[in-house]
Write a structure and sequence with these properties.
The complex is a heterodimer of chains A (108) and B (306). Chain A has 108 residues and is mainly β. Chain A contains one helix and eight strands. Chain B has five helices and six strands. The chains are: A mainly beta (108), B alpha/beta (306). Chain A: Keywords: ATP synthesis, Cell membrane, CF(1), Hydrogen ion transport, Hydrolase, Ion transport, Membrane, Transport.
Chain lengths: 108, 306
Amino acid sequence: MANTMKVSLVAADREVWSGEATVVNASTVDGEIGVMANHTPVLSVLAAGQIDVRTENDGHWVAATDGGFISVANNEVRLLCERVEISYESNFDEAKRLLDAKIAEEGN
Amino acid sequence: MAVSLREYRARIKSTESMKKITRAMELIAASRIIKAQQRAKQAAPYARELSRAVSAVATYSNVDHPLTTEPENAKRAAVLVVTSDRGLAGAYSSSVLKEAERLNERLRAEGKTVTTYISGRKGEAYFKFRQRPVAAAWTGFSDQPQYENAREIGETLIEAFVAGLDENAEGGVDEVHLVYTQFRSMLVQEPHTVRLLPLEVVEGEEKPAADEVLPLYEFEPSPEAVLDALLPKYVDSRVFLALLQASASELAARQKAMKSATDNAEELIKKFTRIANQARQAGITQEISEIVGGVNALADATAGSE
């Protein structure tokens, strides 16, 4: 397929996702960036926010990160984030618990 | 004789329970080491991508960054020593501490003052016992380091280094060295010294192949900003890799030490069993000879009286 590219999402301690995708949307410190196949090489700083990826065969996932890098070269996109939470991995109860803990902490 | 026999039996028993403990520790270390190796493997992609990105920026822009600039005359050095939290790992901690001492001496010979940073309780105890000052110590994660730990350490070291850019700043350093144990194989772990800061960007874990030309990146927002964000992460990731290597080494060293302890205990048990058997046999022999002697004496006495 000509209009897909290799995408890998890498956290500090593991590779979270890798595969073929058609579109990657992420927010950089400069604003949103959208990457499709054969994009020109870019190295940019990601801001805290959401990464949105349309995979081949109409798949889709999102991930939340607190910052990192995106590098695009040779039809490969690499997303480097120290901490990242991907949609199908995260769990609502756990997220809620963490959020409550954080709110309680800030309340103190 | 009977008393010492009991003594030997007690010793055999205590050695046996010791053997059970060391055997258990050996097995635990063996199972954890696989996990530690996996973690090291999983962390590799991040480090690889990061060093690629750093070398890309370094190659295509002539940006001078404080973290990569060699100070003109380095007078103050910091050393981070990665040791273990717990003992019973053979010479693991002492060999890395020895390496640190060697580095210490070398730096002193170069006329630098040395500030020490410690990771691991063993190293902390070593310096405390000798009443030597430690700038900061982190403990409690030596066998399972998390990225957060590495980040904390990295941030502290970078802070000290950045403070060192000002000649007279309190607590600033001009260079940062890292002493940790490199995991070569299950049998070989070597203490290893690297200079962490100022960064030498050229060296990468994996040099790109000659035919693989680095793409002409566009940097957003600017090369400086990208480098600014990249380099601290790069330092953190190097610290993290060192911690992971150290943890795998620690477990391997512990497994090895506990294996030889178990073997030793086995040998001791064999020896004690032999001595105990000998003692028992000697006791029996003595008893028999006493009885025979008594019978003979009795027979002689009755024979004499007739």
